[in-house]
């Protein structure tokens, strides 16, 4: 099982850098599209052809917020983003951080390339109190032939009244790190099993693989409940209503076609692979998940 932060997207899992708020660099609660929103936007970054970097931006909230949605704005070269609450203090501000995930980062939102916005159901939220430090981490890769310069950001939509009752939401992840795709293999599959140990009312999910992934499938008690083709350049957050019970048997299967002359294994780089699935669900009672290593 995952510890109180899960290794990507996570996304990920490994899964999935930034300077706060407006282009002027000021920010905090009230810096987004409305007085209840918070936006974090990166400093300008430049990548040479083939260059890969990880950047982080940490800031401390000035007021309470109940998050009801996330809207990412992707700059060129974005591989994935991770938005998290820190459980141990990080330096405030923008920095180069050569790490995919820490156990002291509790993920709230993850996204791959061009992941669509996430809107939580009515009456559902994620509450962060004033004084909480939040962190946005960005994994960048310039796979082109010319340098790129851009920015990336995320807006947290805040409920009008942070003191109103709400149902807590959070993340549960499946992350298969036991991946080894032979050179030249077509339609090659890797699978993992998971017994969640908790009831989840799922309202959305996000799958994550890299360049040679072609398809992913989730079975619940032997029945297919998610079946999706994979496009690295379009990684949507998909709304889906389903109930997962504590003793359900989940099986995640990822399919790959390796056209290279090298075995491809799990890893953080785009040249490696992943097999991950993130659920957004209620009633959230603590970050958790299943991981095969």
Outline of this structure?
By secondary structure, the chain is mainly β. The chain has one helix at 9-12; strands spanning 13-14, 19-20, 38-41, 45-47, 52-60, 65-73, 78-86, 93-96, 105-112, 118-119, 124-128, 133-141, 148-150, 153-158, 167-168, 170-176, 180-181, 188-194, 200-208, 213-220, 223-229, 238-244, 250-256, 264-265, 276-282, 288-292.
Characterise the protein shown here.
The chain is an all-beta fold and 293 residues long. It contains 1 helix and 26 strands. Strands 2, 3, 6, 10, 11, 14 and 15 form a 7-stranded mixed beta sheet that branches. Strands 8-5-12-7-9 form a 5-stranded antiparallel beta sheet. A 5-stranded mixed beta sheet has the order 22-19-25-16-26. The N and C termini lie close together (11 Å).
Number of strands: 26
Uncertain runs: 1-31
Mean pLDDT: 85
Shape: globular
Topology overview:
Layout: H1 9-12, E1 13-14, E2 19-20, E3 38-41, E4 45-47, E5 52-60, E6 65-73, E7 78-86, E8 93-96, E9 105-112, E10 118-119, E11 124-128, E12 133-141, E13 148-150, E14 153-158, E15 167-168, E16 170-176, E17 180-181, E18 188-194, E19 200-208, E20 213-220, E21 223-229, E22 238-244, E23 250-256, E24 264-265, E25 276-282, E26 288-292
Parallel strand pairs: 11-15, 16-26
Antiparallel strand pairs: 2-3, 3-14, 4-13, 5-8, 5-12, 6-10, 6-11, 6-14, 7-9, 7-12, 16-25, 17-24, 18-23, 19-22, 19-25, 20-21, 20-23
């Amino acid at each position: 099982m995952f510890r109180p932060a899960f290794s990507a997207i996570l996304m990920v899992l490994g899964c999935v850098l930034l300077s706060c708020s407006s282009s002027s660099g000021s920010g905090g609660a009230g810096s987004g599209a409305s007085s209840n929103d918070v936006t974090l936007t990166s400093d300008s970054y430049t990548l040479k052809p083939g260059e890969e970097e990880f950047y982080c931006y940490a800031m401390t909230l000035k007021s309470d917020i109940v998050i009801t949605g996330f809207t990412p704005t992707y700059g060129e070269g974005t591989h994935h983003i991770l938005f998290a609450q820190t459980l141990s203090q990080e330096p405030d501000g923008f920095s180069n951080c050569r790490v995919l995930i820490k156990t002291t980062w509790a993920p709230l939102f993850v996204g791959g390339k061009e992941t669509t916005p996430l809107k939580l159901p009515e009456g559902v939220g994620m509450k962060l109190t004033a004084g909480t430090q939040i962190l946005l981490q960005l994994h960048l890769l310039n796979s082109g032939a010319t340098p790129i310069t851009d920015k990336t950001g995320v807006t947290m939509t805040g409920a009008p009244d942070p003191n109103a009752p709400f149902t807590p939401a959070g993340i549960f992840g499946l992350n298969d790190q036991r991946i080894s795709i032979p050179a030249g293999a077509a339609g090659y599959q890797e699978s993992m099993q998971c017994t969640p140990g908790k009831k989840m009312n799922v309202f959305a999910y996000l799958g994550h693989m890299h360049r040679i992934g072609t398809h992913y499938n989730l079975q619940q008690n032997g029945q297919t409940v998610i079946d999706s083709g994979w496009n690295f350049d379009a990684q949507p957050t998909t709304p889906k209503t389903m109930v997962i019970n504590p003793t359900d048997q989940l099986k995640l299967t990822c399919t790959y076609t390796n056209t290279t002359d090298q075995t491809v294994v799990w890893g953080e780089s785009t040249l490696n692979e992943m097999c991950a699935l993130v659920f957004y669900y209620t009633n959230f009672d603590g970050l958790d998940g299943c991981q095969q290593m």
